[in-house]
Amino acid sequence: MHSISFHCQSIDDLTQKLEGIDAPDLVQLYGTLAIKEAKPWAIYLSKRFPAACRVGMASQRHISNGLVKNHGATLILSYFEKSHLVHHSVAYDDERADQSGQNLFAPFLTQTEQNQANCYIVLVDSKEAIQDDFFHVSQHNDLTISGGRAGLFDHKNSWVMYQDKLYQNQSIAVGIVSPYLTQQRDVFVDNIAIGRHMLITSSEGKTIKQIDHLPAQQVYQRYLSNGEKISLELANRFALTSMHNNVEINAVPLDWANDGGIVMSEALPEGASVRFLYFHPAQSLHAIAPKIQHLNEQQPDSVFVFSCISREDFIDEQPTDKLNLLNQVIPLHGTYCFGEFFTTQFGTRIMQHALTYLAINESNCGVKREVEPIRVTDEGDSLAPMFNLISNAFQDLEQEYATLSAQKQDQISGDWLHDLQTGLLNRFSLLGRLNNKQDIFHLAVLRIRSFRLINQQYGYNAADDLFAQLAHYLKRRLSTNSVGIEFTCYRLSANEIAVSIHSHIAPNKIVRLFRNLAEDIENQEFSITNKIEHLLTLSLSIGMASVFDQQGQPLCEQAHLLIKASEARRFAQINNQPIYWNGDLQDHATSEENLDWILKIRKALENDDILAYFQPYYDSQTGEEVGAEALLRARIDGKIVSPALFLDLIKQTQLYAKITQVMLLKCEHILNRYPNVHVALNLSVLDFKHYATLKALREFFKRNQVNGRLTLEITESESIQDYEWISPIINEFRAAGALLAIDDFGAGYSNLEKLIALNPDILKLDGCIVKTIDTDEKLQKLVKHVNSLAHSLGTKTQAEFVHNAAVQQQLVDLKIDYLQGYHLSEPISESEWLGQQDNKTNL
């Protein structure tokens, strides 16, 4: 296999240079030609090489025999001896990028394994930046992709070529199939991370609105120009870098948003930890020399380069830096792109400011050659030492910060990742650390038993204070010199604390530590002052999970510690034990069953077995049905099962967001079919943190005019910490016609003052304060006052767990607005409930 290329100014020039040239197998055309100017070239090439696969795209710059051209066109001809080509082209739709990618690769995926392509060259023309969803197909299939997005600075004249036609908004894939082909790829990004870690505190899609609670543009101006306005061209050289699921994300500023935000090349979710990334070629030049040396030893037949248009790596057509190093291996052929495609083990990514290459070889596979060392020019004024100095200085600061006590870290960090009641870090902070760092060896989850009874007996403020006392006691005990371990405490929910252990200690010692802690806490008296002082003892159930077992063998991935610790805690509570360890769960069916649940729910999603059941709620005074709450069910092995069996586990996976989106679609279908029906949908705080779910909700309200017929019920409201963050999102959906309900009021600590800040339309009273209201005078007084307060604020009330006539009558007398419970109607299937609606319509 070999490739040659020609740079041509006109078709006449091309005709002359192709004289006597044998017909190739693959033709690639890259040029600065506008689409009308390029059409004659496509027609000519189809006549000149009718049997060849012919592809190409508009390119502001292109590479011919190692030289960079910014005018005319470059033609690359490739000849294969032991390979054959497969190719396909489909339209690219920005609105359906995922489906576009599926359509492009569909013909290839049906082939047998031996006929699968070793690698693909993909070219795409799109008005906007390529959507990440376009390459979802590569995450589920073994696809190796190189290529890029077409582009001229005058975007309306951009194009891609497939055979004898030119297209806009089109995608092309060329696969090389051969049992003898070897391919090497790499990506070079000239960058260095500089500065401290910051948090994305507000984002929407690819637009970052706030960094550390400040407008994103203001943060860029503060650090790059001491507060003065900066140009987009300058900002473009400073990306934000973050790690997500072990994959590095480099988001480059593309445009200023009107509200002070910045449109980035890639989405960065709220809560992401980011640093500035400066693009400069000096930083990585010496680091890549060994990689290019290795490539040189492999004797590639051809090297195709796809480089970012923003890279200034040539002077008067002569390459500099990395292009020059690659040219020492073999003369390069390729093009510049407005986004480069590169495949990692996690799928294909769309790069920016990157140089990617595809090196292929049909012969001498695995045979290295003796070559001269790659030569790197030593620039006397290189900025690399200065950059290294800055980077290493910040690394030292990060290490010093990591050695601070948890108390000092709490003082330094912002409030966004903290629980305001206790000062502890919260669940989102723990999840971020589990996913982004590798410094936790053990995790314990401690749950206070009978916490609801404490809430009911002494009130929410007293229960909050009790929880804070427990947190303080734990931190004090764990900080004593006799323990000698590094730890961090987190508040997971109303009655759960997690403790991460950062010291590599044998699991049996950590289990013993927490067992002793649980015994000491049961013997400790905690005080509650509520008119008169009460002394209480607390009982805990504890789950422990470790990364390594007693012999030091891998037991659990760090990212899964919270799932495993929660699983162990549930086992401890069910079996009335103070503590259980995930290493012992390996001998029990419970662990296997939980892992099996994940597979079962994934299969249920694939088979449309995620179902909605509906439980009606009624006007307490008239008895008429007002609406119905959509309740999640799943059909597993032919049986309808409750989410209580799997939802806590699924919330730790990406399946949870998909389930929410399925339920939303089911509600949408019903609202469109029945214009007078009211539906309530449960959403947790996690849903508002998930980008795909938020996007689905926003698209739902764009498509539909709900006019108060959809109620969004916020569950787990006690886990809301940042009301300033969530209020704008909620208000956005209310402005679009949704009603807001606070679910399970009274189940957790439910700080009344903060819940009032959300100004809900409906306050739902949890079953724990309703089910015995017919016999408990204190609960009657509590519900009476809550109902009176809600009504004074213009909020309606709804009681759950109406399980008998006496409870119903008591709630009617208290003038609770809506009633819901098995005494009135149990949850029924979608078809049965819709049948009832049809009967009402026909009356």
TrEMBL record:
<dbReference type="InterPro" id="IPR013702">
    <property type="entry name" value="FIST_domain_N"/>
</dbReference>
<dbReference type="InterPro" id="IPR043128">
    <property type="entry name" value="Rev_trsase/Diguanyl_cyclase"/>
</dbReference>
<dbReference type="InterPro" id="IPR000160">
    <property type="entry name" value="GGDEF_dom"/>
</dbReference>
<dbReference type="InterPro" id="IPR019494">
    <property type="entry name" value="FIST_C"/>
</dbReference>
<dbReference type="Pfam" id="PF00563">
    <property type="entry name" value="EAL"/>
</dbReference>
<dbReference type="Pfam" id="PF08495">
    <property type="entry name" value="FIST"/>
</dbReference>
<feature type="domain" description="EAL">
    <location>
        <begin position="594"/>
        <end position="841"/>
    </location>
</feature>
<dbReference type="InterPro" id="IPR029787">
    <property type="entry name" value="Nucleotide_cyclase"/>
</dbReference>
<dbReference type="Pfam" id="PF10442">
    <property type="entry name" value="FIST_C"/>
</dbReference>
<dbReference type="InterPro" id="IPR050706">
    <property type="entry name" value="Cyclic-di-GMP_PDE-like"/>
</dbReference>
<dbReference type="InterPro" id="IPR001633">
    <property type="entry name" value="EAL_dom"/>
</dbReference>
<protein>
    <submittedName>
        <fullName>Diguanylate cyclase/phosphodiesterase</fullName>
    </submittedName>
</protein>
<dbReference type="InterPro" id="IPR035919">
    <property type="entry name" value="EAL_sf"/>
</dbReference>
<dbReference type="Pfam" id="PF00990">
    <property type="entry name" value="GGDEF"/>
</dbReference>
<dbReference type="GO" id="GO:0071111">
    <property type="term" value="F:cyclic-guanylate-specific phosphodiesterase activity"/>
</dbReference>
